[in-house]
Specification:
Layout lengths: L1 H8 L7 E5 L8 H9 L2 E5 L11 H12 L7 H4 L1
Length: 80
């Protein structure tokens, strides 16, 4: 909520803000939705199971394929 409020202050209240969010449960909390309604903010949720829309995900595929696939680390510490 603190971040949303800071973001809201950066733009004039007459401008509608569209905030794109994942489906993390706190984003669906009643307080968040009520604040959005009263603050001229529309919450836009990404589709469920759409992690491929996240830009960082394109780095995890190659990491998994070229670094971790076929490896056999006995401990988490060794992998790190």
């Amino acid at each position: 909520m603190r971040f949303f409020k800071v973001l809201r202050r950066r733009f004039h209240r007459s401008e509608k803000l569209y905030i794109i969010l994942d489906n993390f449960s706190p984003h669906h909390h009643k307080k968040v939705k009520e604040w959005a309604e009263t603050s001229n903010v529309e919450l836009v949720f990404t589709p469920t199971y759409a992690s491929w829309l996240n830009r960082i995900e394109c780095h995890f595929g190659p990491l998994r394929k070229f670094v971790m696939e076929g490896s056999d680390f006995s401990k988490h510490k060794d992998l790190a």
